[in-house]
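can u pls check wat happens w/ NAP
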Amino acid sequence: MPLLQNHIAVVTGAASGIGRAIALGYGREGARLVLLDINEKGAAEAAQEIRSAGGEAESFALDVTRREDCIAVAKQVADKVGQVSILVNNAGINRRNAFTADPGAVLKDWQDIMATNLNGTFNVTHAFLEPLLASKGRIVNIGSIQSFVHVRTPNSPAYTTSKHGVLGFTRALAAELGKHGVRVNAIGPGLIETPLNASVRANDPGLVKIFIDHTPLGRAGKPEDIVGPAIFLASDLSSYVTGSIVMADGGYRSI
Ligand code: NAP
């Protein structure tokens, strides 16, 4: 039997990269998908891809930084789709200005990254809290290597801070929601080849080399490399796992 049969799963940032791969993977495991993204067209295309493969999927436009919109979408989903039992907080952005760069750029990076990566995770989780409590649901947050370290490449300190925050939020919610039967975990991807880092990969091969040289598996990851951990954490396979982060980083953080 498919691992996610009878579940309704919400994935944010599902139009692209890791979120899209997770949504497709959940679809293959029998979940009914709700794809949310600021990129409405991309989310609709991903939903169509799931339906074409025989799955069930709907998409809604959502900017996770907008708290009121998150609440409105949660209501729409409850009315049109049903009770959500899995939430993947995946929508995220990165910027690469150092803290010593132009002050205006540094401030904008800080505000945008926190609004999306951290406040967005809060906004969507809070908006879907009721069905997640009612279903004894599962929350999967997308952290990073940078939930632990600031990687030795050009990078915004806001990104590292936001991903530490995502891990802290994961642990805090796991502690509080465990008694309600809700499990909350995170995934820590390493360097995964997605549009998020396409330009930096194209323009700065030295950066890729720093990552690969430090990665025991000796390669960058693909979005599909995150799908197995995401299915594990959303399914009954992880029934006694909460407050954890599963690193899917080719071993980067182990050395
Ligand atoms: P991606 O390919 O850029 O996909 C992110 C998706 O989120 C895009 O469709 C993007 O839309 C959407 N999005 C951005 N801001 C949003 C908002 N405010 N509301 C709703 N949707 C929004 O990136 P990815 O690499 O798959 O990243 C997914 C997650 O993994 C992020 O949290 C990222 O920090 C994390 N991560 C990635 C890596 C990596 O190496 N790729 C490593 C560790 C962690 P637009 O394209 O229109 O902006």
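The first helix runs from residue 17 to 28.
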